[in-house]
């Protein structure tokens, strides 16, 4: 393409207008910036902006207080002995998988729940690990049970002649918002002397999660998914800071004594980590049990409102315990079959009503999130769904 001034303007792309809209996009509700993070984004947007006072180790920078954040506040928050900030949940998972794989002999594998996110799979692949999944889960609950892990570990041992390097559980899974019995899964895994990695991309920063209390060995989270950070930024923790897992994960370079190999020396620098830190006080508050309980109640209210129309089926754990909600909507689907706009009708209807977040073109099945939306807005969205169904004579 031509790189003249006029052509280059296309890259100064304006965000599709979610401004003034109610956002129910599961990818976005937990990553909306706090006011403090918005200010930090502007202030720290320049490249390498945090490196002014760096003595060689990014997470030991005292001003701004990155050291205090990474080495004190974050481990306390995650319930781990040590923590680091990374460039995302997937980078955290890759670092953990790779740190385990590099000290193991031969071909190895990880056991994962069958609802694992694609980023867990590619992280394992990139670390040279094969994957054994727990069995496929069934409609309508799509529940992963602890026994599924026993089965998968046994199947892995039969197929590979050795135990897995690690088991990974997605908490909650990114499709149905189901919360598996992690404590039990961890116990099962530990009976085989296999460490457990909790993928908290949809939990860390939204709800109370504590690695030590759940009995897992590693935990990862996503700053831009669930911690009100611009990102890309993630977190990772290892429960026992004195363990061989921690030693391998935080191994220092032979060529530069202060740089950690799995982190490629430094991870998040500049605005991503500064927005994460700026939102952290709010993150701590919003994940307190009493606040999370309100979010769960809001999600349950929204599900009930939709189910009461008779035109929505909610899949997943009941009563639902998370803001991520998977729905089937025969009503919307019927409309899409008969209207001229086809399956795009819903996007247009919702746009008009200033509701953002259902993927364009989806009508039959879709995911939404009620996180931080608030009761008043949720009532508005439920009313809007009803109005659309009425407009096309579905109820
Ligand atoms: C969004 C998501 C991720 C990816 O998080 P990144 O920080 O973007 O790497 C991983 N796992 C699950 C379950 C997710 O929903």
Describe this structure in words.
By secondary structure, the chain is of the alpha/beta class. The chain has two domains: 11-32 and 289-391, Aspartate Aminotransferase, domain 1 (Alpha-Beta Complex); 44-286, Type I PLP-dependent aspartate aminotransferase-like (Major domain) (Aspartate Aminotransferase, domain 2), CATH 3.40.640.10. The chain has helices spanning 5-8, 35-43, 66-78, 89-101, 118-126, 146-160, 182-191, 211-214, 223-226, 244-249, 271-286, 289-308, 330-338, 345-352, 375-391; strands at residues 22-23, 82-86, 108-112, 129-133, 166-170, 196-199, 218-222, 234-238, 313-315, 324-328, 355-356, 365-369. Helix 12 runs parallel beside helix 15. The chain binds pyridoxal-5'-phosphate. Residues 88-90, 117, 119, 170, 174, 199, 201-202, 222, 225, 234 line the site of pyridoxal-5'-phosphate.
Q: Brief description of this entry?
A:
This protein has 395 residues and is α/β, with parallel strands linked by helices. The protein has helices spanning 5-8, 35-43, 66-78, 89-101, 118-126, 146-160, 182-191, 211-214, 223-226, 244-249, 271-286, 289-308, 330-338, 345-352, 375-391, and strands at 22-23, 82-86, 108-112, 129-133, 166-170, 196-199, 218-222, 234-238, 313-315, 324-328, 355-356, 365-369.
Structural key phrases:
single chain; about 400 residues; alpha/beta; Aspartate Aminotransferase, domain 1; 2 domains; 15 helices; globular; binds pyridoxal-5'-phosphate; protein biosynthesis; PyrdxlP-dep_Trfase_major; O-phospho-L-seryl-tRNA:Cys-tRNA synthase; transferase
């Amino acid at each position: 393409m031509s790189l003249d001034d006029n052509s280059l303007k296309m890259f100064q792309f304006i965000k599709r207008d979610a401004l003034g809209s109610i956002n129910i996009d599961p990818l976005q509700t937990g990553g909306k910036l706090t006011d403090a993070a918005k200010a930090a984004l502007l202030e720290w947007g320049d490249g390498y902006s945090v490196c002014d006072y760096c003595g060689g180790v990014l997470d030991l920078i005292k001003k701004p207080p990155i050291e205090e954040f990474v080495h004190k506040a974050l481990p306390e928050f995650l319930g781990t002995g040590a923590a680091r900030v990374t460039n995302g949940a997937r980078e955290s998972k890759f670092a953990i998988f790779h740190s385990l794989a590099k000290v193991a002999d031969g071909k190895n594998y990880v056991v994962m729940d069958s609802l694992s996110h694609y980023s867990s799979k590619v992280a394992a692949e990139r670390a040279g690990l094969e994957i054994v999944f727990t069995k496929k889960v069934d409609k309508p609950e799509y529940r992963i049970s602890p026994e599924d892990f026993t089965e998968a570990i046994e199947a892995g041992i039969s197929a590979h002649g050795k135990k897995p390097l690690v088991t990974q559980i997605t908490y909650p899974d990114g499709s149905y918002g189901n919360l598996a019995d992690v404590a039990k899964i961890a116990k099962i895994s530990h009976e085989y002397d296999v460490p457990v990695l909790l993928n908290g991309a949809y939990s860390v920063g939204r709800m109370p999660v504590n690695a030590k209390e759940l009995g897992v060995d590693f935990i990862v989270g996503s700053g831009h998914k669930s911690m009100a950070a611009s990102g890309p930024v993630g977190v990772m923790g290892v429960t026992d800071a004195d363990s061989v897992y921690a030693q391998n994960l935080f191994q220092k370079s032979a060529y530069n004594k202060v740089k950690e190999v799995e982190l490629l020396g430094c991870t998040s620098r500049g605005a991503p980590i500064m927005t994460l830190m700026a939102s952290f006080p709010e993150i701590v508050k919003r994940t307190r049990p009493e606040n999370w309980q309100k979010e769960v109640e809001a999600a349950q209210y929204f599900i009930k409102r939709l189910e009461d129309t008779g035109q929505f089926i909610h899949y997943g754990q009941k009563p639902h315990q998370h803001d991520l909600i998977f729905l089937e909507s025969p009503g919307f689907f019927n409309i899409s079959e008969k209207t001229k706009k086809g399956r795009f009708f819903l996007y247009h209807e919702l746009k008009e009503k200033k509701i953002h977040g259902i993927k364009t073109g989806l009508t039959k099945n879709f995911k939404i999130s009620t996180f931080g939306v608030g009761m008043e807005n949720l009532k508005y969205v439920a009313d809007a769904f009803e109005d659309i169904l009425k407009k096309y004579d579905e109820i």
